[in-house]
């Protein structure tokens, strides 16, 4: 969720609150938008009436946005370079951005009572990728083994299913937007797109799968995506032809590996603990302190669907009204997660399809960002800054 709560809005402004990076500023959907109308003091001053010195002073207030824009552009360029030229080390870039973006998001969200959004599934998947990176690094650098090592093959595919299933679909569902100067928008894009990019690098090595797991890297044999050097060689051979790029059976995995284990991971690691703490253990505190969660957001923005789920759970299973709505949401969320995770089976076996999905997700985020910049931000910014700093220009 992001929110644009600047004071730099037109005279009648719309404050749009968005969850998980949903850009509703270009949408007319009342389900996704919370709108408050504020009337700013009337003024006869406009950009056209400012003197040259006043314009220069007004422009000086844009330095923070200019700095953020520069950082945002350089971050995207670095991401592209790491992905294409150094796929074996993309995990480092993913790790560094995680420890930057998520603390910043927590700091910004907790001021509005939104910090519980950082417990949502998309964030949980990112936390799991970081945990996997740390455990792999401890293994190769310090020889520290954990019981999870024996489940490496299953864990890799579960991570792949979640990163290349629900997370990448969220780019479309939540209208993620690349807006270079806005850390909230960039964080939302990162949460959904960077884990997907990590899996693309680990599976395909930007076109040479064997570069991920060999003796020539600085961190040799850190990730075991394929079972043996022979499998990696076969994967390399796949990508030497168009037919192999379309469908590669090297390092193959059955469809069920992208459905059942991910579903169990979702239920045991996240869904059950999440429901217990959010809906039972912390429920009173959440209500009293007016904290927001994705469950309450779903109930508010999808009243008809929520009513159907609630009535069916109450009527068929006799569940009390207190728990019917949250259970209805969790069931609906579970079905969507499993459905989208199952589509990752095709991405695991197709470099071409995986890359096309990558490109389309990136295209969507860029396009959404361009719509925001030219349809919303451009109309708000100049007049908004003028009203915000008017007394300093007089």
Major beta sheet, strand line-up? 1-2
Ranges with pLDDT <50 over ≥5 residues?
1-17, 23-43
Helix count, DSSP H or I runs of 4 or more residues: 16
Order of helices and strands: EEHHHHHHHHHHHHHHHH
Helix content: 55-70%
Structural classification? mainly alpha
For the record, the count of structural domains works out to 1
Overall geometric form:
globular
Biggest sheet descriptor: 2 strands, antiparallel
Average pLDDT over all residues? 86
The radius of gyration over CA amounts to 23 Å
The total strand number stands at 2
Strand content: under 5%
Q: What's the N-to-C terminus distance?
A: 37 Å
Task: Give me the secondary-structure topology.
Blueprint: E1 2-3, E2 17-18, H1 52-60, H2 63-85, H3 90-110, H4 121-142, H5 152-173, H6 183-204, H7 229-238, H8 242-246, H9 260-281, H10 283-288, H11 294-301, H12 303-317, H13 321-342, H14 344-349, H15 351-388, H16 390-393
Antiparallel strand pairs: 1-2
What's the quick description here?
It contains 16 helices and 2 strands.
Describe the structure.
The protein has 394 residues and is mainly α. The chain has one domain (1-252, 360-394). It has 16 helices and 2 strands. The protein has a two-stranded antiparallel sheet. Helix 2 (63-85) packs parallel to helix 6.
